[in-house]
From TrEMBL:
The chain crosses the membrane at residues 7-25. Residues 56-278 form the Xylose isomerase-like TIM barrel domain. Gene3D superfamilies: Divalent-metal-dependent TIM barrel enzymes (3.20.20.150). Keywords: Membrane, Transmembrane, Transmembrane helix. It comes from the Bacteria. This is Xylose isomerase-like TIM barrel domain-containing protein.
Amino acid sequence: MTTRRNFLVKSGALAVGTMILPSWITYNSSVKLGNIGVQLYTFRDEMTKDAIGTLKKIADLGFKQIESARSEKGHYYGLTPFSIKKVCDDLGMNLRSGHVHIDKNWKKTVEEAAASGQEYLICSTMPSRGQTVDNYKSVAEVFNKAGEDCKKHNIKFGYHNHAYEFEMHKNQVLYDVLMDYTNPDLVHMELDLGWVIVGGKDPIDYFKKYPGRFPLWHLKDMDMIKKESTEFGKGGLDISKMLQYSKESGLKYVFIEQEEYEVSPLESMKHNLKYLQELG
């Protein structure tokens, strides 16, 4: 199974202390200062060892928005929903979203997310595998129901793609089936731009075909040879061009996620934020 990968863009300004807000952020009203965050899976090992200390380092980079990910210590790296909220509050950050599975503990997952103050709860992998149109229609029904469950707790439900959703069956792109059979009011898509291009598609085509359906992005550059994430500017994603379509996307928050790195997650994030700054 493909591993979950999230990629976020931060308003390049917010990062690393004294960085200046890039012009494309101020020009594009869809992406505002403070709406760029990081997916904590990027720091998965560090979060498992020392969640609070790692969150402090992330805050020092300038990030204001956080997206958590399911880990061996639970959804909050051994912290309770209340304690991670307090830590983030104290550091001037928001736990904005979280990656989870739809499983037998789904009810508890939603209740925890509500307790943490999250705005979004994102399913990070298909609840049932089967690369067929019928399965994707069935999954769409599951997602609509999950959206109803979340809405009762004032949370927005969504789904994060990988590359396999862009395979075809019966002359239909399976991701398109998912889009066509989910209720836009209940299912808010988090588009991983890196995995879209690995899947052979162009994110901009989706912004145009399904305007307003993608309030969350994982901004992630991809090494198209190795099919894995890399630092910004070293892969096949035209980041500057993507950002020009944030309004069509309905973008609210961008999360940077990088799963592979040459040195360390911290150094990769510094590189990525510097890259975003220089786009301005």
